[in-house]
Each structure stands twice: as C-alpha cells, then as structure tokens.
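= Paired protein data =
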Amino acid sequence: MGFTGDNLKGFVLALLSSLFIGASFIIKKKGLRRAAAVSGVRAGVGGYSYLMEPLWWLGMLTMIIGEVANFVAYAFAPAVLVTPLGALSIIVSAVLAYFILNEKLHQLGILGCVMCVVGSIVIVLNAPQEHPISSVQEIWIMATQPDFLLYVGSVIILVFILVFYFAPQCGHSNVLVFTGICSLMGSLSVMSVKALGISLKLTFEGKNQLIYPESWFFLCVVAICVIMQMNYLNKALDTFNTAVVSPIYYVLFTSLTILASVIMFKDWEGQGAGSIASVLCAFMVVIAGTILLHVTKDYERSTSFRGNYSPLSPTIATRLCSGNGDSLQQHHEQNEP
C-alpha cells in the first residue's frame, strides 16, 4: 500500500478537480448549443462563435479551476492514482446532464456510478508511492530515456495521421478520431504537467528549478498539448452526444496516460504483483462502470432496448459510428407529441 501523506493531498485535489471538470462539460455544452443557435454554425464544422458566448467562457473558467487542482495533484501523487480518479468527473457530468441537459439516466447508470466509486477506492488504496525527485534535470533524464522517446515518437506519428488523414474524411462520423487526438496529446500533456508541477513544487521549497531550460520546455509542451486538446475536445463535444464522448475520452485518455507514466516515471517499480493486479482490475471496473453509466443514459428513450427497432432510437454501436448524437436527440424531440 502506498497511501502516504502526499498521496492523500493528491487524492483530495483530484476529487476537487473532478467536481469542477465534470461541471465544466455541461456548462460548455450549454454554451456551444447557445452559440450554435445564434450563429447557425456549429463548432464541429469549424465554427468559433462560441468564443463570444459568456456561458462557454464560464465553462472554461470552471475547467481551468479543475485543471489547476489536477495540476497540483500530479505534483504530489503518481499519475496511476490521479488520472483514474477522473472517472468521478464522469459521474458529476452524468448527474448534471440529467438535471440540466435532460439526458436520461437509467437505473443501471446508478450501478455504473457505484462501480466507478468502488474501483476508484481500490485504486487509491493500492496506489504506488511517488519516487522522490530532487531536480527537473532528473525528470529530463526520465523523459529522454529510449523507451519514452519511442512512445513520444509513436504518439506524434499517430496524431499527424489522425489530424491530416482521418479527421477530414471521417472525423464527423467516427467519434474515435477527435477523442483519439485528445487522448494521445493528453498523455503527453500530463507527463509535462507532472514534470512542471514537480519543478514548481521544488522551487517553492527553496530549490529554484526555473533557472533550468528543461522547466520552460515542459511548459511549452503543456501549452501546445492543451491547445490541441481543447480544440478537438470542442469538436467532439459539439459533433457527438456527451454520453458518447465522455466515456470514450476517459478510457482512451486514462489508459494512455497510465502507460506513459509507467514508462517515464516507473510508477510500478517496487510494487508487488498483487497491488499492480488490484489497480488494473479496479481500473477495468471503473471502465465498465463508466461505459455502463453512459450507454444506459438514453435507455428510457431507446425502444431498441425493448426489442422494437426505431430509427430515431439508435443503439450505442450506431451512435459510435455515425451521426451527431445531439441532432438525433433533437429530431426525436421534434417528433414527440
């Protein structure tokens, strides 16, 4: 068990982060809808009218607060602990979507929430201890090891392929394109955020790390990655239903981030096989809960679950591969008596 004092600080900050980020998804979604209604051009097809929408900026402010809390959490606890706790933001998002966006939440969705909470607790209890780091130069050595450089190179190649080949062809019909770009860049941004967070933490402790160019390099990487994430996450949220985007983004982003952290920071070095297995099993439970939570959100509306097919109530497989979830929902609402 590695639930130390620093892990506790990281855990509390991650909880606060999930609360703010979960709320930001809903606020931004409302802002995107309002901006699209006014301008007639959606963000998913290249519109940027949401930049003039105060509600969208409120959502951005809420997300920034959550991201700051998340940023600080990475300075205290390993990514294997902090990142999976993002599932709690999915719960917050689902509950708020039920009340604010009128997105259905079936009783099985409650089971999904419970699974996320239970899985998160197991992850917390089996979290590894953070390896002590004395300088940003030590982090630079980790970032330039061959294994991690291979990972970074693979991510950059995949992002270029997704952005320049798949996005123009099927970005608006396949949710994996936009969320894939966000997740790949997100794994690099988390590693840089963690490096920068540790650098600032050491600086506040009296060991100035800002004199080293490595700290500023990590800051530049964070800025580039976050801008790309924000752009493509906006496209994903505006093109597809929140119930589709959130779980897929969570699964891809968390899996890639844990992989990157294990490669770069060697989070599982010194961990027993039982603890690692417990974390992996708990993560699978969180994934299952997240998926269950969202695929059952429209259970009441979808007659396909009751054996009667209706083109206005597509299955989750259909929604994953085609069309705009919001457009389908609006079309359905227009045809209701």
In short: DSSP finds 13 helices and no strands in the chain. Confidence is low (pLDDT under 50) at residues 299-337. The radius of gyration is 20 Å. The longest helix spans residues 5-39.
